[in-house]
Structure formats: structure tokens, C-alpha cells
Amino acid sequence: QPLQWVHPEATLPWEEHDWRGADEAEQQSRFDTLISEDRARGFDLRTPPLLRLTVIRTDEHAWRILWTLHHLIVDGWSLGLLFQELFTTYEQVRSGRLPAESESTSFRDYIAWLQRQSLEPAELYWRKTLRGFTAPTPLPGALPRSPDSVLRRQHLNVWLPAQLTADLQAFVRQHHLTLNALVQAAWTLVLSRHTGEHDILFGATTSGRSADVSGIEHAVGLFINTLPV
User: Where does the Condensation domain lie (predicted)?
Assistant: First the structure.
């Protein structure tokens, strides 16, 4: 059974570097190396907190901050809330004011709501909906990884022309859809074409903020849920 262990207090790992003597190219090279090393460190889930900060001074009045955290403690929605509070607090301190304490819903309230929910109706629904499926549709070319293999990441950015973007937006409006639904439909066709299967099953992440918890839209934590599509 999953267990969440909340520590009453923890010391924030904090590192500082002074790179004012290096030129811009050298600073960027150091920063790229720092990111790679920091990512390789990972986290020990038994040791709180699951985040750390590195502050680099690059000029007399310029700093860069590397803020590393584990996905177990925040989701994408929460990051927006954290950055908003960070910049608000920063401006308050700059103007000589004491930071105002923010009031937000505790993640504990969400856990309490979650524990009150009955899982039986949901289980019956998904068993009926997914009848006949034994596994998700395999990704084309996906191979099992050994425990000691190194996962390498790459980014591919594709920019759609303005006219194509406008055409897609007009199409989804006409058919009362969203761009997200259109992308998922396209992904379904890609999986079907490359796997030769007609019944496609994959996971899609939802915000999880639809729970009946007061102020959940302002709460920080991991609320996301992955549902089969």
C-alpha cells in the first residue's frame, strides 16, 4: 500500500557559486555541466527534502538559480503557483516589506478527501471499459531497459506555421473539440499505423484538480492522475 511520510522539518540543500570571473561562453559551459551532474545525482526518497537549490552569481547584479525537485512532491500546475509566490515574495522583499503569509489548501485535505472515496464504482467502470485489453499499446521500437542502463534524453521542437495553427484552431472550434483531443487522435492513428493494431490504449495525464476540495486550484502537491484513453 502506498505510504506518504511527512517530515515535520527538513534542511534545504543550498549551494552557491561565484562565476563572475568567467566570460559568458564559459559560464554557459559550466552551467550545462552543472545541470548534467545535478540530474545524475537524482534523489534518495528516504532523505528529505526532495528538492535542492543552487545559486550562481554571474555578474555584480545577476544570478542564475538551478531549482531541482522531484515530481513526487509537485506537478506542473503547482510549479506555476510556486513561481508566482516566489516572484511576489521577491518583489515584497525588494521594496522593504515583510513577505505576506500565503493561505492555501493543504495537500492533507486532498488526501483526506481521497481516502473517503469508494473505489468500487471506479473499478467496475474501468473493468467494463477496458474489457479485452491486457496491456497498453506498445510504443513502436520500444525496448526493455536493463537496471544499469543510462537513460538519455533529447528534445525535438517542431514549430507549426501560423496558418496551419489557425486552421487547426478553426477545425476544433467547428467540431466542438480541443487541440489536446485532436493531438490524442493523431497519436492514436500513429500508434495504430506502426503497431498494426486497431484497438489502441495509452495513458493521458489529467490535472486531478476536479476533486471536491475547497481551494484545490491553489494547493501545491502532486494531484495529477493518468487515465487510459
Answer: 2-229
Distances (CA, A) of 46 to 3, 7, 38, 73, 223: 12, 11, 18, 13, 21
Distance CA 69, CA 19 (A): 24
Residue showing cell 490535472 = 207
Distance separating alpha carbons of residues 82 and 63, to the nearest angstrom: 19
DSSP string for residues in 140-198: TT--PPPTTPPP-------PPPHHHHHHHHHHHHHTT--HHHHHHHHHHHHHHHHH--S
Mean pLDDT of 155-183: 94
Q: Residue 27: helix, strand or coil by DSSP?
A: helix
Q: Distance between CA atoms of 94 and 160, rounded to whole angstroms? A: 40
**Where is average pLDDT lowest: 58-72, 150-164, 171-185, 189-203?**
150-164
Cell of 143: 525496448
Contact predicate 69/50, CB 8 Å: yes
pLDDT digits (tens, 9 = 90+) for 108-131: 899 899 889 998 999 999 999 999
Sequence ranges of the domains in the chain: 14-73, 107-134+157-228
How far is the CA of 96 from the CAs of 4, 86, 103, 107, in angstroms?
Answer: 38, 16, 21, 31
Quote the pLDDT of residue 26.
Answer: 97
Q: Which CATH superfamily is domain 107-134+157-228 in?
A: Nonribosomal peptide synthetase, condensation domain (3.30.559.30)
Question: Cα 13 to the chain's mean position, in Å?
Answer: 21
